[in-house]
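hey so i finally got around to running the thing on that chain from the lab meeting. sorry it took forever, my laptop kept dying and i had to restart like 3 times. anyway pasting the input first so we r on the same page abt which one it is
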Amino acid sequence: MRIKIIGIIVLAGLLTSSCGSNKKIAEAKAQFDSEMAVANKQLGECGEELNKALNRLAECEKQRDRLQSSIKSTNEKLTLREEQIDDLKSQRSQQVEQIGDLTVLSKGANENIKETLNQLESKDKYINLLQAAKTKVDSINLALAVNLKGVLSQGISDQDVEISVDKTVVFVNISDKMLFYSGRSDITPRASEVLGKIAKIIESRPNLEVMVEGYTDNMPISSSCMKDNWDLSVKRATSVVRILQQDYNIDPNRLIAAGRGEYNALASNETIEGRSKNRRTRIIILPKLDQFYDLLNPDMAPE
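ok and heres what got predicted. didnt touch it at all, straight out
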């Protein structure tokens, strides 16, 4: 009898121990499943961040290719200018050699030769001045365009904003849907996103002027506060200028507002796509005229 009681106690202990082990295993498994769920979530987030980083890298590579193409074009132009300068110098050397071969020269002829040499020297000096001015303007505009593309590339569609460099100025074309309500000159809340970024670049270039031009399509418009497309384009340009002055503290002496109406169209107004492209605001960043003419002043030519 005593042996049976002892066996029952031992059996009860074994069953209790087995139940305790199963509970611990269940708890460990639950904790493991929880940690695995967290790890899988973190892995998914890392994957999303990796895709974003790869997309940004691809965009940077595209921008690098565009810049390399622009730099190549600029270098080709510089090479052409250098060839022209070398040709002029060669012509001057030939003329000097021809003059040196003359043995009998009158006083008047000597004076004429001296004047010719002075003119050739001035010509070389002016050519160097033009080369320096062109290089300076090209460098300023290239840096400005690169900065603008950099700040505007984040979160803004390429279809809404287009940046280009032409001669001595930088053009920023902005679609009307980015800035205005349809048929009105009121600035939309979304406009602050692009105008704020452009204002920072303008503010960092105090020696440049800013012209804002408004454009429309050829669809007639007439209301109590808008007579026609001329009126709409001017008021839209004025609205942008006012925002740059009042919200971003751009010196009004640097700002110009102009309306071009339905004219100077980029595309045919016969299609919806063409009219959409023609409805735009163009911001032109250009050197102040007095400073630009200073670049062409012969007295400022490099020695």
